[in-house]
Amino acid sequence: MDTTVHNPDQYMFDFRHIITNGRKKIGLLIGAGAPVSVNVGDEENYRALIPDIKGLTKLVREKLEGVEKEAFQQLEAEIGDSNIELVLSKVRGLSEVIGATKIHELDGEGFRELSKSICSTIKDVVDVDLPEGDNPFSDIISWINGITRQAPAEIFTTNYDLLFEEAMERAKTPYFDGFVGAKNPFFDPSSISNNDLPINWIRLWKLHGSIGWAETPDGDVVRGSVTGGESMVYPSHIKYDQTQAAPFTSLFERLKNFLLEPDSLLITSGFSFADAHISAKISECMSANSSSAIIALQYKTLEEEIHAVDIAKRRPNMSVYCKDGAVINGVKAGWRLGEEPSKHWGKIRQEYWDGESFYLGDFKSFAHFLAKSGGDKTYLVTPEEGDGDDSSEE
């Protein structure tokens, strides 16, 4: 009988040390679960700031009308998955290849118009403001700003909203997202590859595009609205033409380069690892660079987080922390509390353990943990307690 267990206190002690000392090259990969964790309803009626992919797909489907709605539903049935990203990829693929031929009552031009309708609805749904006062996005920025760093913080996100941008602007924090200019900022791949901006500038890499981007009639990608252009640029999981490929290939290359840097750490939150493109890139880089590491904070149980667990079981430098257990060094096992790693640790334990399960897979809780850790080192081990070295950095 396998009695292997993981002690969450042991790993959270090391984790807290890493996120507070500023030496590690740290990146965050934030997925669709992040805004879902922010309740803008009330205690009885939970309403997410932005719905998850399933909720977004439902809203798009309800907004469409006539032949566009019928085509959308038929594509969902063909794909076998109600996933707005997959449907939009299919729509764009058909718009490029069928010409005057009709599929589901739409020709190539009809599918181009359907793509615009879908993107317009997505923009309406995700174009929201951060709640006033404390919120997890501002907590993340507070943590980044509160620590003197030897390497810049990098945020990779698959979300299309402008919540991180708003959080950084509220805090008067400089950031770079790959675009330069004033009137119609244009995408500059060379600036991404060089990455030689000041350390205090946060790097924000939007892997799946943004509602703040637009495609001009000439096919260029700019940040901001343009007359006669697409309302947003959105990635497609199919072959791009040259102008579409430029932002996304450069951004994915930046993710790859980060993971290949020595002694880098990528922390993921709200990301399911169901995106085959990103997951394949992560697995490839973890195999190529044994000195890099990933800590994936997952909201569900080990049995439910199949995509993250699958990678972690094959890549020992990727750890997955779930509600009921973890995969660490390739070993899948449940949580079991052990001896407190330092004096007064019980107070810190309350920030990630609710008495029965690990809850930092919730983005709101994770962001609060970061912000509080950044400004409070009270309970870190001291040299007098016999563990004042930097072993957790190795």
Can you give keywords for this protein?
disordered C terminus, single chain, 394 residues, alpha/beta, two-stranded antiparallel sheet
For the record, give the distance between the C-alpha atoms at the N and C termini, rounded to a whole number: 32 Å
Secondary structure tally, helices: 14
Radius of gyration: 22 Å
Low-confidence stretches: 239-244, 378-394
Structural class per helix/strand content? alpha/beta
Largest sheet: 10 strands, mixed
The number of distinct β-strands equals 14
In words, what does this structure look like?
The protein is 40% helix and 13% strand. With 394 residues, it is of the alpha/beta class. It has 2 domains: 5-45 and 132-384, no CATH class; 53-126. Helix 5 packs antiparallel against helix 6. It is globular.
Task: Summarize the SSE layout with pairings.
Layout: E1 5-6, H1 8-21, E2 25-30, H2 33-36, H3 53-63, H4 66-79, H5 84-97, H6 108-126, H7 136-145, E3 154-157, H8 163-170, E4 175-176, E5 179-180, E6 186-187, H9 189-194, E7 202-206, E8 213-215, E9 221-223, H10 242-260, E10 264-269, H11 276-288, E11 293-297, H12 306-314, E12 318-321, E13 325-328, E14 331-335, H13 345-349, H14 363-375
